[in-house]
Amino acid sequence: MATQRKTSGEEQHPRLHIRGLIPLDLCKEMEFIHRSCATVGYRPHVFSTTLAHLVATNSPHLLLPFLPLRERLRETVEEFFGCEYELFVEFTGLISWCKGANIGWHSDNNRPYLKQRDFAAVCYLNSYDKDFKGGIFHFQEGEPASVVPMAGDALIYTADDRNVHSVDEVMDGERLTLTLWFTRDSSYDEDAKLVALLSQISLDSQNNTYVPFPASNHMYWYSPDPASQYGVNGFDVRWARLHILGYSLYSDHDRIQNSRSNLSSDPLDLLNQPMRLGRDGKAFEMKFHNNLHALQVVLFYCWKVSDLKSSKGIEEDVQTTLQQSSQEEVSVDLKTVLHFDSQLVEAFFCEDCFAFEWNDFSIAIAAWEEYVHRLRKELMSRIPQWRLGNQLC
Ligand SMILES: O=C(O)CCC(=O)C(=O)O
Ligand SMILES: [Fe+2]
């Protein structure tokens, strides 16, 4: 980008609205990552996925799609604001807002623990009106006064009180952004923290180590009333996303009996154990390692469904591995055991409808494994360089 001479309006309210910065397929990939990995967020009706969380849940390879965009945003911010010092990414996160989420007038460095934030970049990954209603961004003063979120666009602004802003309440759907903050204070450098975390994990691709490991159950538990007890009056967001897409989770009867007889065990741990995935009273033959594993494959299928259909070729070549719920063991729908609030889930998330086919789903499983192996290999080749330089690029 050519260095721009700023008008006095821009100097008073330094900000830039960039159209079409993020390729739409990258927006979709990030939506897949968020929907399959997010935990309950820091405020009501909000879900978030941080890069550190991806590393901690054995999905460090999912960092890779973020890196070129993260670097591009850093350079754009440096150039537009004319930074004559090194700028570090302080935080990168996917953040989704469901019905009811909003934020009043604020600046992004308005708390003592946020003072290190110098600039913000908000990337819109889905679109107003098409994917959600409400959720329009406003600046209190200066131009543009409002920004209507559209997939692929980004908004950069200083984190201080020259850019006080708010976001209208989301009225329907799920509004998704990739939000970054930048700092000149190297002690808040997110890269250094991530490189340290990556140094601790095993990148051995054997023994199914590519399967996601869940974080603590508490991190996935959503309750509309923050005072309400964990496990009561709410839902597990991992289960909720599968439920809304029409899937059920089946666990062995014996496993459920064991969980019940062990009074100290958390019933939600059943989600962290092997399970089958079902639809319309049928169950898929393959067992998933845990609920997150099933969720990642399902959402990969949702993301890639049109490519899978077009590359499918002759129908007979595709093995259908569908069977009635297994004969040798009794499978129980976890919904009847874990008592999630389905009505609440339906008020939160909306269903993305497409015609489901078991044939396509079985192709998606193989395609998901290929995707993960490819990213995992690339990650392994990059880590030595990162360790030396402490930067993820
Ligand atoms: O999502 C947006 O448009 C802005 C969100 C925001 O203001 C914030 O997270 O501080
Ligand atoms: Fe903000």
Automatic annotation (TrEMBL):
Residues 76-184 form the Fe2OG dioxygenase domain. Keywords: Dioxygenase, Iron, Metal-binding, Oxidoreductase, Repeat. One of its GO terms (molecular function) is procollagen-proline 3-dioxygenase activity. GO terms for biological process: collagen metabolic process. Pfam families: 2OG-FeII_Oxy_3. PROSITE patterns: FE2OG_OXY (PS51471). Its cofactor is Fe cation; L-ascorbate. This is procollagen-proline 3-dioxygenase. It comes from Acorus gramineus (Dwarf sweet flag).
